[in-house]
Amino acid sequence: MPELPEVDALAAFLRDRAVGLTMADVELASFSVLKTFDPPVTALAGLQVTGVTRHGKFLDLDVDGLHLVVHLAKAGWLRWSDSFGDKRLKMGNGPLTARVRLDAGDGPSVGFDLTEAGTRKGLAMYVVRDPGDVPGIAALGPDALDPDLDLASLLAGRRMQVKRFLRDQTILSGIGNAYSDEILHTARLSPFAIAADLDDDAVERLDAAVRSVLTEALEEATGRPAADLKDDKRTRMRVHGRTGQTCPVCGDTVAEVTFSDSSLQYCPTCQTGGQRLKDRSTSKFLK
Question: Which residues belong to any copy of the Formamidopyrimidine-DNA glycosylase catalytic domain (predicted)?
Fold first, then answer.
């Protein structure tokens, strides 16, 4: 799933390429991808892209005061093209969900495709007058890289596992499954430690890890072409997606907990005192 660093980098990528161009057309290949009807998507045609920003994990293209907002969900991605042909998308075009055609002055030949792998479809597109009209944006908590973020206050009183705390966009926005694994590994915390029970030292480690992991990832992602961002992210992971491999910090074997639709990875030595967490159906989680 694209998270704060990748979505921020995609926003910067689009600012370099799309700002100043005219919105020519938005073609849909999936009925379910467009979540709004007023204003209609056709209202964007002929307007100029004036800015691109990020809200949590949402991309926001300002189109002369209207906003084309995209959430890439778990398996979505954005693919830029400098040479679109004239053939229009058809409904049910495989992983393609939408195409945004832009006109640089010589016709609608550039722009980007939105794609989504797998059978579970979550990619969403909105056309709104204000980004706050998107329910997911309206509900966002503070940005994980907000310099004024007070993580200790957010943690206080939360009887929830710290892994879920980090991923809850209404509490803290921008962090998903991958970077929460990386942050907890850096902070040396069990994914299932209870947020409200963390002592001062653990809170300080977590706060430092949130900032260092995301800042480093953002620096690595910034300036990279959109096509390179996913592979670059994978190569930087130390525990996430590396089940069975060696922890680069202590040399232990990275372990995994699997759920019905996702999984997490962690290092037993670095994070859980050498104990292995087991599946919910067979054992209680380590607190």
Answer: 2-79
Does residue 202 sit within a domain?
yes
Q: Please give the Cα distance from 280 to 106 (Å, whole number).
A: 58
Q: List, for residues 236-281, the tens digit of each pLDDT value.
A: 999 999 999 999 999 999 999 998 778 999 999 999 999 999 755 3
**225: preceding bond cis by omega (within 30 degrees):** no
How far apart, in whole angstroms, are the C-alpha atoms of residue 285 and residue 260? 16
Contacts of residue 88, Cβ cutoff 8 Å, sequence gap at least 6: 27
Domain count for the chain, please give it. 2
Q: Which of 138, 163, 180 is the last residue of a domain?
A: 138
| Residue 143, in any domain of the structure | no
pLDDT for position 273: 95
**Cβ 114 vs Cβ 126: under 8 Å:** no
Cα R_g (the chain), whole angstroms: 20
Query: Domain containing 175: what range?
Result: 151-271
Q: Which amino acid is at 124?
A: A
Read off the pTM. Answer: 0.92
